[in-house]
Amino acid sequence: MATIKSFTDLEQSKKLAEILPIESADMFCADVFNKEKETHSYNFHILSTWGCNTFEELKDRENKFVSFTPVWSLAALLKLIPNFNMFKRTIECRIETTNHLVDKACEPIDAAFEMICWLKEHNKI
């Protein structure tokens, strides 16, 4: 059974953090530093499971982390798309191969990420 992405990856999250209000994110990625091993590990968490409602509250706990990046779930991204019903049909991934346009199985989170970027680029959000 295929695994479905639940949230934006680190690269997508960094781009969204530049164009969206951080308050719209519902998760975060913590860069945790292990002093003994001198290694970094990246852990994704739901904001509310840390007893935080905002990223400002999370900053108070930042001393445990080297840094954190806001992360968006599919639900959080879909809330940002104006008139979502109008865009439902456009959230599809397609690839062009030679002269054919072929449907490609893709992650809904990736499609929503692309839609948010397009909407922002065209001043729709």
List the helices and strands and how they pair.
Elements: H1 10-19, E1 27-34, E2 39-46, H2 55-59, E3 67-71, H3 74-80, H4 84-87, E4 94-97, E5 100-103, H5 108-121
Antiparallel strand pairs: 1-2, 1-3, 4-5
Helix pairs in contact: 3-5
Label the overall shape: globular
> What structural class do you assign from the helix and strand content?
alpha+beta
Number of strands: 5
List the strand order in the largest sheet: 2-1-3
Rg on CA atoms, Å: 17 Å
Content of β-strand: 15-25%
Describe the structure.
This protein is α+β, with helices and mostly antiparallel strands. The chain has one domain. The protein has five helices and five strands. Strands 2-1-3 form a three-stranded antiparallel beta sheet, with helices on one face. A hairpin with a 2-residue loop joins β4 and β5.
Outline of this structure?
This protein is of the alpha+beta class.
List descriptors:
125 residues; alpha+beta; two-stranded antiparallel ribbon; 5 strands; 32% helix; 23% strand
